[in-house]
What we know:
about 250 residues, alpha/beta, Rossmann fold, 7-stranded parallel beta sheet, 7 strands, about 50% helix
Amino acid sequence: MPPTTPDPATPRTAFVTGGARGIGRAICEALAADGHRVAVADLLPDETKQTAEAIDGIAVHADVTDAASIHQAVTNTELEFGPVEILVNNAGWDQLIPFLDTDEEFWDRVIDINFKGALRTCRRVVPEMVDAGYGRIVNIGSDAARVGSSLEAVYSGAKGGVISFTKTLARETARYGVTANVVCPGPTDTPMLQEMLAAGGSGEKVLEGMKRAVPMRRLAQPHEIAVAVAFLASDRAGFVTGQTLSVSGGLTMA
């Protein structure tokens, strides 16, 4: 089917993984502010419900490590809002551990959530986008994948996989009116980051190191990441695909 030329004002159905808090919640808020119908997909029942209520969206339980869970979450979204036209893969997880202190169980969990989670949602949603002749995919990477990040070797590798996968997906689906792009946050003030720092045992030292590495000398705020996602998810970005955009205060300049 040839690409469509949609009305820029048309509300779309968006599915955001890891949407309950932090960057994910900010993305849900930004998409809702643009008039889209948003499904907040997450494992955290209370926070997912709170975010959905705040934006007049719907809360859907979704475990990105389980294809059946993703299938059901997308089906529930379709029943409520119609086919998913905007997919944001934001769900992620990590711990700050030197590579030589990690084991294969840890590797598997990081890769399963951060890389294979995006594969699962895309495999479920993208065929319908192709059939419809329209779709916006925004995968959340990390500047850790672009420059490396001490204590995050496996996470950096998984997010590098997200970037490469997204470029290839963009090539394969461009002719069908589907775009696929990556937004790479730098260090961002989120509940997950605070949990990672607390678990590492030297949180303040690591935090100060993160700030010093950023030319702007501060952490990003979630809404600063969300505005980039909202642009790439919009009809205004219809000729932008296969791109990697860092939102990192200058940590990566390329």
